[in-house]
């Protein structure tokens, strides 16, 4: 019986995951289409709301389809209370689970991740702080960018 369930559930889950990822890519593409600055200017208005609401909902749905149910206990700190949000140990894709309930904060990511098909567009819409492994000043530049965003009085999303 469990083998039969697996044979049925696995393809259904895979199809649902593919559909959710394509929807996330579509919404990320719309939100960033013709946006000036490409990461140097924060998303505002409908673009930012679209990313925060639709991608948050799609991310929650994606993890639910994968078998995870996220339940938040307590109160999530607002952007004004905590401009920098730390999720540790940052060792797997499970760190993304925390992004949905926290309103899709900006993340710190390798610059190479931005060129990945589908995921790169979704990642770009979150306006990440890019870290270049080839740049010797990358660590200093990353700290400066995080500090700039944290002190922006809410113009940038939380940095995770």
Automatic annotation (TrEMBL):
<dbReference type="GO" id="GO:0005783">
    <property type="term" value="C:endoplasmic reticulum"/>
</dbReference>
<protein>
    <submittedName>
        <fullName>PCAT2 acyltransferase</fullName>
    </submittedName>
</protein>
<keyword id="KW-1133">Transmembrane helix</keyword>
<feature type="domain" description="Phospholipid/glycerol acyltransferase">
    <location>
        <begin position="69"/>
        <end position="156"/>
    </location>
</feature>
<feature type="transmembrane region" description="Helical">
    <location>
        <begin position="7"/>
        <end position="30"/>
    </location>
</feature>
<keyword id="KW-0812">Transmembrane</keyword>
<keyword id="KW-0808">Transferase</keyword>
<dbReference type="GO" id="GO:0016020">
    <property type="term" value="C:membrane"/>
</dbReference>
<dbReference type="GO" id="GO:0006629">
    <property type="term" value="P:lipid metabolic process"/>
</dbReference>
<keyword id="KW-0012">Acyltransferase</keyword>
<keyword id="KW-0472">Membrane</keyword>
<dbReference type="Pfam" id="PF01553">
    <property type="entry name" value="Acyltransferase"/>
</dbReference>
<dbReference type="GO" id="GO:0042171">
    <property type="term" value="F:lysophosphatidic acid acyltransferase activity"/>
</dbReference>
<dbReference type="GO" id="GO:0047184">
    <property type="term" value="F:1-acylglycerophosphocholine O-acyltransferase activity"/>
</dbReference>
<keyword id="KW-0443">Lipid metabolism</keyword>
<dbReference type="InterPro" id="IPR002123">
    <property type="entry name" value="Plipid/glycerol_acylTrfase"/>
</dbReference>
<comment type="similarity">
    <text>Belongs to the 1-acyl-sn-glycerol-3-phosphate acyltransferase family.</text>
</comment>
């Amino acid at each position: 019986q469990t083998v039969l369930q697996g044979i049925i559930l696995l393809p259904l889950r895979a199809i649902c995951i593919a559909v959710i990822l394509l929807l996330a890519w579509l919404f990320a593409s719309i939100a960033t289409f013709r946006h000036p600055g490409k990461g140097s200017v924060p998303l505002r208005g409908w673009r930012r709301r679209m990313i925060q609401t639709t991608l948050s909902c799609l991310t929650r749905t994606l993890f639910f389809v994968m078998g995870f149910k996220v339940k938040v206990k307590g109160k999530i700190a607002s952007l004004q209370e905590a401009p920098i949000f730390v999720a540790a140990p940052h060792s797997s894709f499970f760190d993304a689970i925390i992004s949905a309930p926290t309103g899709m904060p900006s993340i710190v990511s390798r610059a190479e991740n931005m060129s990945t098909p589908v995921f790169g567009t979704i990642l770009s819409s979150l306006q990440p702080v890019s870290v270049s492994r080839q740049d010797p000043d990358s660590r200093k530049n990353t700290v400066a960018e995080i500090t700039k965003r944290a002190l922006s009085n809410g113009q940038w999303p939380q940095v995770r």
